[in-house]
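Key result, reporting period 2: structure in, sequence out.
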């Protein structure tokens, strides 16, 4: 446990619940359908749709929150980096992302 904690402290980040959910799902399921998760390039794409980070907290934009966490010196999730990893996992496991659809190449 020391090594895991030390790595988290040095990186200034911690893994999201989405990370742990996909790990569990890959172990327990033959196929996974992920609904409503944007990919790592969505927030930089032209015409992306602004949506609240949490449906119960109006005013906090999802993409702004992702960029804030991605660049936080400590205490953040690396959401964008995690999504890059999820895309790599989808090449080796049956993971399908919809709404929006991901192109996994």
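The corresponding designed sequence is given below.
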């Amino acid at each position: 446990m020391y090594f895991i904690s030390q790595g988290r402290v040095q990186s200034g980040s911690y893994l999201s619940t989405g990370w742990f959910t996909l790990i569990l799902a890959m172990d327990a399921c033959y196929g996974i359908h992920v609904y409503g998760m944007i990919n790592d390039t969505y927030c930089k794409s032209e015409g992306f749709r602004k949506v609240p980070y949490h449906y119960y907290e109006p005013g906090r934009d999802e993409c702004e929150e992702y960029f804030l966490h991605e660049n936080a010196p400590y205490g953040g999730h690396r959401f964008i980096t995690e999504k890059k990893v999820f895309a790599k996992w989808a090449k080796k496991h049956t993971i399908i992302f919809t709404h929006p659809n991901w192109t996994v190449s």
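The mean pLDDT is 85. Residues 31-104 form one domain. This case is discussed further under Risks and Mitigation.
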